[in-house]
Amino acid sequence: MSRSDDGEKLSTLIAELRGRVEQAIQNGQIAGVAPEDLTNLVSGAVKLYATAAEETESELPVIDGTVSTTEAMVVACALLRAHHLNPFDLALWFSRTAPSAR
C-alpha cells in the first residue's frame, strides 16, 4: 500500500469515527467510553494535527465551527495542564505558531 493509499484510508477512518462520535454524543452514549480511549483519541488527533502543521508548507484549515468555544477551551486547558504549562507559556507558543509568523 502506498503512502497515498494510507492517507486515503486514514481519511476514511477519520470521517467514519467522527460520525460515530457525533452519534454517540447525540444519543447520550458517552458514559461507556473508557477514559483511556478518550486519551488515546485526543492524543492521536493532536499528534496528527501538530505533525501536519509542522511538515506542510501550506497553512492547515482552522478547526471548524462545529467545536464550541467551551469545548475548545476544555481541551486546551487539559493539554496545558498535562504539560504543566500556564497562560504565559500559551502566549509564547501562540505567537510562535501564528499564521503570519510563517
List keywords for this structure.
102 residues, mainly alpha, 2 domains, 4 helices, globular
Can you walk through the features of this model?
The chain has 102 residues and is an all-alpha fold. The protein folds into two domains: 1-33; 34-102, no CATH class. It has four helices and no strands. It has helices spanning 3-26, 35-55, 69-82, 87-96. The radius of gyration is 16 Å and the shape is globular. The N and C termini lie far apart (33 Å). The relative contact order is 0.05. The model has no long low-confidence stretch (mean pLDDT 87).
Secondary structure topology:
Layout lengths: L2 H24 L8 H21 L13 H14 L4 H10 L6
Low-confidence residue ranges: none
Task: List SSEs in N-to-C order.
Answer: HHHH
Number of helices: 4
How helical, in percent, are the residues? 55-70%
Number of domains: 2
Radius of gyration: 16 Å
Fraction of residues in β-strands: under 5%
The largest β sheet comes out as:
none
Distance between the termini: 33 Å
Net shape: globular
Total number of β-strand segments? 0
**Global mean pLDDT:** 87
Assign the structural class, choosing from mainly alpha, mainly beta, alpha/beta, alpha+beta, or little secondary structure.
Answer: mainly alpha
